[in-house]
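<instruction>
Derive structure tokens from the sequence
<data>
Labelled lines for chain and fold:
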Amino acid sequence: MRGEQRRSSVPLVTGIVVALTGVALGAGGAWLIALGGSWYYLIAGLGLVLAGVLLIARRPAALWVYALVTLGTLLWALWEVGLDWWPLAARGNVLFVLGLFLLTPWVTRALHPRPAVEAAGVPMPSRRVSALRGAGLPLTATLVLALVVAVLSWFVDLHRTVGTLSPARVAASPAAAASEGGVPPGEWVAYGRTGLGQRYSPLAQITPANVADLQVAWTYHTGDVRGRSGDPEETTYEVTPLKIGNRLFLCTPHQRVIALDATTGAEVWRYDPRIRGNLALQHLTCRGLSYYAGPPQGQAAAPPAALPPEDVARREAARAAVPDLPIAAEDAARRRQDCAAKLFMPTADGRLIALDPETGAVCTNFGGGTGQIDLWANMPNIRPGAYYSTSPPPVAGNLVIVGGTVLDNVSVHEQSGVIRAYDANTGALVWNWDSGDPDATAPIPPDRTYTANSPNSWAIMSVDEGLGLVYVPMGNQPPDQWGGRRSPSVERLSSSIVALDLATGRLRWVFQTVHHDLWDYDVPAQPSLLDLTINGQTVPALVQPTKQGEIYVLDRRSGTPILPVREVPAPQGAAEGDHAAPTQPVSALSFGPTPLTGRDMWGATVFDQLACRIQFHRLRYEGRFTPPSVQGTLVYPGNFGVFNWGGIAVDPQRQIAFTTPTYLAFVSQLVPRADDTTLYVQGANRPRGSLPALNENFGAPFAVKLHAFLSPLGIPCQAPPWGYVAGVELATGRIAWMHKNGTVQDLTPIPLPFRMGVPNLGGPIVTAGGVAFLSGTLDRYVRAYDVSNGRQLWESRLPAGGQATPMTYEGADGRQFVLVVAGGHGSLGTRPGDAVIAYALPPGR
């Protein structure tokens, strides 16, 4: 009897669940219609309410109604997204699972009410319902159809471009060979291997035919893991080591410098700069070191205290302004010596330290005997930690050229974005280029300061010593999302690539990638320099990837486009007191995303997919470059960038690029400020200790709330894929192939290795062997690809997030090594660690 009662209650409970599902969809659907969105959710919700009522009444017609709703959902989903599995699944998974339950005997056996004549004692034929009988049959057929569509869509990839890059190679021009500076093939002497920023190695031992045989050769642990007191959220391990001789040189997030034996991974020496505490840090990272080979042969290294009086005055003034800044060479525990060759280490407290590559000793013939340059010299608005160089400064000739990061969106009273060139032998200031005062490049007098809040350069620069130019990717003047008070020079130089004369610092040309940038689309990546064959002529080119997805290919002599750039109309209607540029530059080589629509919204279920559609229609969005607003603006791509600091890798012989486009939408909402002290964004989550109040924009009329465009379940509102690898022919701008890349294995509560295409942060490298390597995807893998067609050839699991750019070199045993740093990324939430892992083919292979 109790079993019968339980079975008889199943249709009642199920009917209530179905009806409530319908109410939720219907209510949300009505809201969506009011916002101008799809009618599907209201119609489906009403159908489910009807099906639920019929189930409560134990009427077989409930299954007919449910089958119609499911069939309608399937047809609507196919109309919206085609055979795209993940968007289809989000639309139909709840209905499919609930439909399967409706076909179970617990439900169907209760859906056969006795007719009145049978109740009176007149026997009637059986009218039982089951999955294959009566009203259950249409629902079964509909679910089978939905399953067939799902299976078909699993094997269809609508986001894949299939093709092959040209295998043709061209000989390096004399100018290109000279720009390499005689770097041996097995070395990696700068962040992008050389100052050209190509991230290309001429090594060819590892090929598509044997890369699957790679194995771990050695692993080294630095002992530096994020999570210390005072660490900002964005404490990251982004270093690309250098390889000179048989030494590897790297830095850690907490600024230790380590030298390893390149063949065995054994530690040779370690240096701790003892960074001062209580820093106003937004980021804590070190992307790498810089190497200076020393003065030309026959020229002696500079003696100690070789600074001009003006530099000594600058140093003393900076020391007075930041009295507790450590001085490397004054620590009695330090090893000190004169150096010819030098490693340069930028520190989070605003110093540039010179070390001997052989011993790790502080170079006392640099910085007037201190072994360092104080980057706070002549800097306005001194606040240690708020300004420093997160990227390795380029070395060109006898110059080391330093830019720096400033705090994003904290106030309008930040430090200068000045670019400074110092003598690599002595540390004397040679020239300074301040984007707020771009014509004054002679060394600044000791009693003056640089322009406060001028656009800065935090990314990696590139140099062409043959042309005598350094190429500087520029950022923005804070605040990023409101530009009503920008000066003419700021308007001209923000979010641009500038070419400066190496000898004088004078501006030679400028190419702006975003006009009046309101989206934090600063130029994030190192330009890649190579020669291209255009109409039979060799043209020195600069290839610049950007956050908004454009890849500009320019003549690096003049900044004029090689691939066409056109100005397209941009949305208008900026916030009060501001304006929007009427047009924006779009390159013929573009990974700019297709504008989002309601049908691009996604979620784990139909409910959060509906929530995302509602959120989408509530935000202001008129396509790329929609200005930030008090209403809230959808920014796509967001400031995470289609490309970020990892950049791209180019093969100068094949004149191709291996790229890693990422697509994530963000929300930017301006918050009117009534004063310069209230925390409008941080609120109760005010920063700890000295950490800055990000996005408050003290001194501006608006604070800004920035966040990823996520569903209530915390997953992206836009449908996957979110990350790709792609191959490009640079001379023509043709995207030859493009494949989604990476799994959600480390992004979900249950580690499911679904290859959905996930975001990437960290750059790729390519080799003459035809193999590319990448470790920056948010799942913990390093992968190898065939450069010609993008096919994945190999992967290896990492112990922590690999958000860094790999490198490759030749060891003393003649083997080619591939090196990966796996330390994680704080703001992305990838697993922290401290591993340096070298891979190589087995000996004798």
Notes: The CA atoms of residues 554 and 560 lie 5 Å apart. DSSP finds eleven helices and 43 strands in the chain. Residues 116-122 have pLDDT under 50 and may be disordered. The longest strand covers residues 537-545.
